[in-house]
Write a structure and sequence with these properties.
391 residues, alpha/beta, Purple Acid Phosphatase, chain A, domain 2, 6-stranded mixed beta sheet, 5-stranded mixed beta sheet, 11 helices, 15% strand, elongated
Length: 391
Amino acid sequence: MKLLVKMFSKLANWSFLGAIVLVFNLFLLDIYSIYPCDWPCPDCSDENFVKVMILSDPHLLGKRKGHPVDQFTREWEMSIAFQLAKSIRKPDVIIFLGDLLDEGLTVDENGFDKYVDRFEKIFSIEDPIEKIFIVGNHDIGFHDRVAAYPYLRKRWEKAFNSSLAKLVTIKGIKFISINSMAIEGADFSLVQEMENYLSVVDEQLTKSNLPGDPILLLHFPLYRINDDICHEIDSQKGQDRLNNFTPGVESLSKRTSDNLLERYRPRLIFNGHIHSGCVVNHTKHDSQEWTVASFNWRNRQDPNYLLLQISPNDHSIVKCFLPTEISIVITSILCLITLCVSTKIMGKLVDSHSPKSQPKSKPKDNKKKDKENHKPVSKGEIKKRKSKEKN
């Protein structure tokens, strides 16, 4: 029993030390990646410039698809990276471009509430940072599901302070958020409801006297045939970039895309959905579209996010990469090996400098002594002793 307790205690100590090493390793790797990636315009100290952090597709796993170990690992990685980036860069605004929850459309009400609580713990954002959440297909489903189950959309809008379409103005910069799954499809009532929301946005823009064109935020990319026109370092590779997009599934239709470009003439468009990066210049409308790669290591080896500095008349953008998962695995293994070896070396050094134990002395044989003391004495010996005593 004592041996089992000793083994368990040793295992617990090693597990604790190993966990500390892994956290410290990821922390250092994130610092190494995040700290050098600064705001693109450090000299833009004008109050008109707004600092915006943009990320997409975190895909928090649910109970159906994700293994608990996989779920814990990904959320732990994302939480450390996000909190470090937020603390170091101190943005004014943080934007999530959809698919916050991987199984948001399948969980019941209680499960959804727990899902939202997990998201808010992992991606906690304190005041006064503004936040904008765009809904994705994994949050509420594609068009047919959104139309068939309106409660999916409404509970998400309530939890994340969103709507079908919304104009948000922050420090003079106009952001238009749009529900990609509701803007087009077979359900006339949903499309008409979406049009009513867009009309409100039109009216708000008409009444606004703020300078500068708006920023368009949505989950689906605008129409493009495929990703063969994308040449970013995080764009799709190989055959994947040649696979044609299905309008309404991988992108918006050409008609809807042209309508949004004509209607709002946005200078910048940000979206996600395909988990890979892309930059498209819509020269006819003087607009630039950025498709942001996934922030989750489960979806790609090199997750990233954008840092945007924007004023009514100018903007700068930089893409910040997180450490690759292979680098995290290799350095974690090296750290654990180093911990194991150094612990053994330290143990040997301690043993070599500790005082040697003295050999135990043999106990005296008292029985033998007693026997000697109780030997029979002869009469002659007794007389000799008495004569000595007299003298």
